[in-house]
Design brief:
98 residues; alpha+beta; globular
Length: 98
């Protein structure tokens, strides 16, 4: 499955999880926050598709998705992201530089 299709499924997953997605200038960052009582994922709008997939997979890796249908390739991407987070084997974010 290509990254564009995986991104589409992850964006749909956001809706199932009640997370509003916002693509906007965010200095190359992505993250999940609560804003006025709503979960909001902010993704830098300059990120390429593959980077957006990585960001959303990282954000949703620890969310409850067991009862939501996801294509196997998407679920695998979430599991890999969760494993990277557990082992600390992920790309350093801007907050980890320097």
């Amino acid at each position: 499955m290509d990254d564009q299709t995986i991104l589409h499924h992850l964006e749909e997953l956001a809706g199932h999880l009640g997370v509003e997605l916002r693509y906007e200038a965010a200095a190359g960052r992505a993250g999940l926050c609560v804003l006025r009582g709503k979960k909001v994922a902010i993704i830098d709008d300059s990120l390429r598709v593959a980077e957006r997939v990585d960001a959303l997979a990282s954000i949703f890796a620890d969310q409850p998705t067991e009862d939501i249908y996801l294509p196997p390739a998407v679920r695998e991407r979430l599991l890999r992201s969760a494993e990277r987070e557990k082992t600390g084997d992920h790309l350093p974010g801007p907050e980890q530089e320097g």
